[in-house]
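Hello, quick one for you while I still have it in my head. My current little project is about how a certain protein chain folds up. You're getting the sequence in one-letter code plus the fold written as tokens. Would you mind checking whether the tokens look sensible for this chain? Here's the protein in full, and shout if anything looks odd to you:
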Amino acid sequence: MSITIFVLCLYLNIAYSDKNKSDVGFMFDGFFKLGAASDQELKNSNMSAHEIYADGGRSEAGQVFYNLPLQFKNSNTTSVFSFSTTFIFAIVATHPKFHGHGLAFAISPTRFIPEAQPNQYLGLFNATSDGQSSNHIVAIELDTDQDFQLGDIDDNHLGIDIDGLDSVNKSSAGYYTDRGRFRKLDLSSGEPMQVWVEYDSTDQKLGVTIHPINMPKPETPLVTLKEDLSSCFFEFMYVGFTSSSGPNSSHYILGWSFRMNGQAQEIHLSRLPDIPGLLDPNDMGGGGRVHKKILIAILSLVGAVIFLILIYGVVMIVRRRKFIQVLEDWQILYGPHRFTYKDLFIATKGFREGQLLGRGGFGRVYKGILPFSNIQIAVKRVSHDSRQGMREFIAEIATIGRLRHPNLVRILGYCKRKKELLLVYDYMSNGSLDKFLYCLPNNDDKLSWKQRFKIIKDVASALLYLHQRWVQVVIHRDIKPANILMDNDMNARLGDFGLAKLCDHGNNPQTSLVAGTPGYIDPEIVQSGKSNTYTDIYSFGVLLLEIACGRRPVETQTSPEKVLLTEWVMDCWDKGDICEAVDSRLGDAYEVDEAELVLKLGLLCSHPIASARPAISCVVQYLDGDSQLPDNLSDLIKARNLSGWSGQVCSSSSSDFPTGQTSMASLTLTESFACSGR
């Protein structure tokens, strides 16, 4: 596992050491390696650090704080002092597409934040504490991972965070020239950059500036916030840096200066260290120069022992090659956090029956509470002889482990122990959608029409992200109520990506096996076996009818004309009252226009001919009321031969479609159905 490393200074320069004075300051301008220093070195440097372990099942958020608290508020007036700090950092990405989460400069009431989640939230918070005013944490985030739930604008931005990671102000990384032009910076480029964080107590204004180290500090800050911070701070606070552990990037702090009630001292560039494995020894003003005699001595020593190490290393590599390769595939490429079996065993109380949430062909799902953090989780335990074997297990890690959307179930990590495979998810307290449709005996617990329509729009939003908004096209291939989970607020989240397939935009996935659940499988792929995004649209169409009608796609215990859900809805439409198919448990408590839209759209999406189905971007427009269904929709749905038919184009602009996909405005219906613009 790649370890997030912080590098701080070896040479400490303290301007004022009395913590009771308001003008305390310090500077670090050499380097200090987290986890490599002795206890005495940490004590001498007034720095505290948490070592990050890659083995033994322990993985903690990287945190390093100045060892002494600093007085941030006047004890008499409770007003916040002015302060200024600057630091030089570098983020080295180890994967071209998928970076780590980034790092943050933090002002905290405690020297460590033990409850911080290790693989998310920048080492500052967890799912429960994020956004709580009781945190009293002010942070400057250098975020290299876009998280839609936190309102991130992109995967390369700076933000001012107060008690949570939904930044109160943020901007893409860059700086303004003297002429006011914006120059973009890549936080994960591996190049050293300098950040200034300055608060003026008179104007009550916080400013953040970033720039390359080979230029003067820009006059215009990148991000500013005008706010009285007195409610955020206690009288004494700690300052330092945090980051989430992860395999896709390494984080380095190369120098740091802080000053209360004054300007932070400039960092000596000539003393900055090399960035391991990246910079030339002569870069950065000579900080990487190594005395030749010392280098010769080190090389001689290495040469004397290398033969013994080589023999031992070859033996160990041969014995562990297969195990190491699996870890590299999962952790370097996919990056989710790896849990220990012991923690999951404790969390689920030994996988007791009382913790069981559900079971299926893949295995069982258990409820659990992680020890120490008290975070609720759901653990999918894949059975040894399951049809969902190792390939599907890795596929789910590879897919959902990198996705970020509020309507997708988030995977927290995984565990592999011998032949046992486990996936760890956010716990969804309200269970799956099929429970609400079929399993609740109390009529008071039925889903209202408003809830059903919201669920439909939530799933459509998730599919839009999977098909068109992520870096690759994700085909889910198993959309059904059992795979739609409901959170505390009854928001729908699509989960279970064990059958998912990925492909680049503009390409078709290469698959020859039919996958899915009977009743939701696209009839066109039964013969071809080739899935595409319209395979998901078919399943989504069946789901629309199922939610609106409150019954399964196939019901054998009913009259012959009602056995197939799609045929029954069509019969109701032919009789002039399509709303007759709406779930009878709703009575008249539903919106007629919305119900007609859902039923007709369900029939269109589940059309047996793929070319007649709309793209998910058009589906979202229909549901949002931005486009209307075609006037001749009934003829289109009943048609089984679409050759030569050309329909109207939808109102989506070409920017709605990812690079590599043809704009729908240039396609006929036989190629891709398009929605009519309002």
The longest strand covers residues 249-260.
